[in-house]
């Protein structure tokens, strides 16, 4: 960095002496002011270099903005693709669940029909068994009643003979 600056120290010292400064005071003033000018003030070259840095920073900011915009666009595209994929997967899952439920319903109806058929068969067998048992009971009752009637007829005949 070029810190050289045109400063006429001799002319400045003469002006100080002209207004009443001593040689020591004028020399001290010149040294201090020279030091401040050399270390504290910016030259046109310094300002130009700062301007270059500012331009570089602005370019970097623009690059970052462009990169962020590209990332934003990419993320939106990826999210849309993910959403589309998820919707597709959900439709497939829904279709599969509906198919599975239909198969389950068909299976349950078949099982219920088989159970109904089995129950009807069992009830028919029970009815047939009851009828058979009732017929056997009826037959036994007829035989017993027939036997009682024979005894009753015999008892009546004996009573008639006795009387």
Structural overview:
The radius of gyration is 62 Å and the shape is rod-shaped. The chain is mostly helical. The model has no long low-confidence stretch (mean pLDDT 92). It is built from 3 helices and no strands. Helix content is 90%, strand content 0%. It has 2 domains: 1-41; 43-132.
Fold topology:
Blueprint: H1 9-18, H2 23-39, H3 44-162
Helix pairs in contact: 1-2
Keyword list:
163 residues; 0% strand; mainly alpha
What is the gist of this entry?
With 163 residues, this protein is mainly alpha-helical. Helix 1 crosses helix 2.
Q: First CA to last CA: what distance?
A: 167 Å
Count of β-strands: 0
State the shape.
Answer: rod-shaped
Report the uncertain regions: none
Give the helix/strand class: mainly alpha
Q: What proportion of the residues form beta strands (DSSP E)?
A: under 5%
Q: Can you give the mean pLDDT?
A: 92
In helices, the fraction of residues equals over 70%
Sheet with the most strands?
none
């Amino acid at each position: 960095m070029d810190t050289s600056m045109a400063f006429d120290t001799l002319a400045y010292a003469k002006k100080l002496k002209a207004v009443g400064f001593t040689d020591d005071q004028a020399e001290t003033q010149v040294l201090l002011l020279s030091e401040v000018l050399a270390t504290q003030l910016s030259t046109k070259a310094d300002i130009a270099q700062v301007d270059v840095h500012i331009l570089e920073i602005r370019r970097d900011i623009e690059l970052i903005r462009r990169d962020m915009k590209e990332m934003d666009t990419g993320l939106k595209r990826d999210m849309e693709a993910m959403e589309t994929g998820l919707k597709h997967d959900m439709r497939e899952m829904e279709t599969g669940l509906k198919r599975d439920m239909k198969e389950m319903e068909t299976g349950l109806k078949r099982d219920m029909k088989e159970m109904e058929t089995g129950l009807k068969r069992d009830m028919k067998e029970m009815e047939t068994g009851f009828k058979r048992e009732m017929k056997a009971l009826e037959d036994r009752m007829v035989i017993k009643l027939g036997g009682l009637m024979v005894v009753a007829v015999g008892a009546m005949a004996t009573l008639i003979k006795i009387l």
